[in-house]
Amino acid sequence: xxxxxxxxxxxxxxxxxxxxxxxxxxxxxxxxxxxxxxxxxxxxxxxxxxxxxxxxxxxxxxxxxxxxxxxxxxxxxxxxxxxxxxxxxxxxxxxxxxxxxxxxxxxxxxxxxxxxxxxxxxxxxxxxxxxxxxxxxxxxxxxxxxxxxxxxxxxxxxxxxxxxxxxxxxxxxxxxxxxxxxxxxxxxxxxxxxxxxxxxxxxxxxxxxxxxxxxxxxxxxxxxxxxxxxxxxxxxxxxxx
Amino acid sequence: xxxxxxxxxxxxxxxxxxxxxxxxxxxxxxxxxxxxxxxxxxxxxxxxxxxxxxxxxxxxxxxxxxxxxxxxxxxxxxxxxxxxxxxxxxxxxxxxxxxxxxxxxxxxxxxxxxxxxxxxxxxxxxxxxxxxxxxxxxxxxxxxxxxxxxxxxxxxxxxxxxxxxxxxxxxxxxxxxxxxxxxxxxxxxxxxxxxxxxxxxxxxxxxxxxxxxxxxxxxxxxxxxxxxxxxxxxxxxxxxxxxxxxxxxxxxxxxxxxxxxxxxxxxxxxxxxxxxxxxxxxxxxxxxxxxxxxxxxxxxxxxxx
Lengths: 241, 305
Fold this sequence. Notes:
The complex is a heterodimer.
Chain A: E1 22-26, E2 34-40, E3 43-54, E4 67-74, H1 90-106, E5 115-125, H2 130-144, E6 154-161, E7 164-167, H3 171-174, E8 180-186, E9 191-198, E10 201-202, H4 203-239
Parallel strand pairs in A: 4-5
Antiparallel strand pairs in A: 1-2, 2-3, 3-5, 6-7, 6-8, 8-9
Chain B: H1 6-10, H2 13-24, E1 40-44, E2 50-55, E3 58-69, E4 80-87, H3 102-117, E5 127-129, E6 133-145, H4 150-164, E7 166-167, E8 170-173, E9 179-182, E10 191-192, E11 200-207, E12 212-215, H5 219-224, E13 227-233, E14 238-244, H6 252-288, H7 297-304
Parallel strand pairs in B: 4-6
Antiparallel strand pairs in B: 1-2, 2-3, 3-6, 5-6, 7-10, 8-9, 11-12, 11-13, 13-14
Helix pairs in contact in B: 3-4, 4-6
C-alpha cells in the first residue's frame, strides 16, 4: 500500500514531517487534584491525577520518596471494533508500567516521602500514538495538580514507511507493520527518558527517525508550555490579581 | 507494583554507595569492565525445543511447543507465535505466585516484540490449511534464578529453544484434500522452524551520576541503577526493538553509542548460540544412528581421503 503519495502527501493529507493538530484542556475532572484532556488529531486521551496523598496500602509506603502509581485503560468505545477487553491485559499493563516509570523520572519524588500519587489515563478515542498522547496528558495533569517536577515530559512517535520518515503516525500508518519509534524526552535537559521501538530498521535510518520524533517532542513541549502559561494566566485573572 | 522495591530494600545504603563509588572508577563488583558481558552457557534438554541458559547467576529455561489451531480471522495464512513467562517465587523472593506481575509482562513483551515484529520466525510457513489449520508455536520462559538482566537471558533461551524445535510434518489428505494428517516423528523426520535472523536483546544500565553506562547489569546493580534500556539487534546490524521505559534520561549520543556496542555484542552472542545449536544437532543426529559393534566411522573417513 502507498502511504506517501508521489506528491509527498500522506493518507490524511499531511506532509511526512507534519504533526497532527494538538489540542489540550486543563481541569477537566472536577474531583481530581489535576486533570487534562489531550488530543493529537483524532486521538483523544483524558488524564487525572490524585495526590500527593496518604498511602492507601501501608505496606507499599516508601520512607524516602513518594509512591507513584499509574493506570492506563482504553475505553470500550475508543476503537472501531467494539469488544470487551479484559482489564489488565498484557498491553495495558506494559503501557501502565511505561507511563509510571516515565513520570516517576521527572517527578521530584524525594520531596514527598510517605505519600502517594495516582495517575489515571484513559483513551477516549484511539487513532495511533495513544502512548504518546497519554504521556502528554499525564504531564499536563501533573502540572495542573501542582506536583513538583524536574521538567515536563513530552512524547511523540515517528515511523518509517515507503522509505520516508513520518512524524506522528495515525492508526492506519501504525498498523502498516512498519517501524514505530515512540520517544519521550525531558525537553529542557534534552535527554531521552522513554524510547520504544519495534520492527526492523538499520542503525543510520533509526537515528534519523529518532531525531524526527525528538523534534516532534520539542514542538509538543512548546505547545504544552503555552497551554500551561495560558492556564496560569487565567487562574491569576480569576483571582483578580 | 509488586517486586518493584523488594530488590532495593534488600541492599543496604552502604552497599548501594559502594557499588556507585566503585562504578565511578569503572570497577564493577563482579570484576567485569563496564562493557563486558557475563559468561553465557547454553544447554539443551534431550527433547527438541528445550533450552536452559545461564548468564552469570541468572538461569532461564525455554521450552517451545506447537499445536494445530485455527488461525486468527484477520490473518488466515499465518501461524501464531506466542510467549508466556513464568516468574517462579523460587527464583527471587520478590516474585509473587499467581498472575504474572508487571515485570513478567514487560519481559514477555520485549522478547515478543523482538521476535515477532521483526519477523524473525517465518509464520507463513506454519500454515497448513488457510483459514483452518495453522501451527501455534508457544514459547514458555521459566525464570529459575534471578541474578539480574533477566531479559537478555530469557531472549537467548527463547532463541535457542526455537532453533532446536522441530514440528511434526503434516500433509493434506482425505477425500476432499481437507484432512490434515500429522505424521509421527518415527515415520517422517520432524521439520525445524524457519528462523530468518536472530534478534539478540542486550540491556544497558544507566546510573544517575555522570552518565555511567554498564552492559548486562547484575541483580545488585539493577537495584542501584536509575534506568535501563534493552536494545534488540541482530548480527546484520538491524535494530529490531528498543525498550527504555522511563527512568533516568540519557542524551541522544549515548543511545547511539549503546546501539553500536549492542551490534558488536550481538555478533558474538549469535555465534555462541549457533555453535551451541550445531553441537546439539550433531548429537541429535548421532543419536539416531544405530551402530553395530563391528562397523566404525573411522574407516569411511580414511577412504575418502
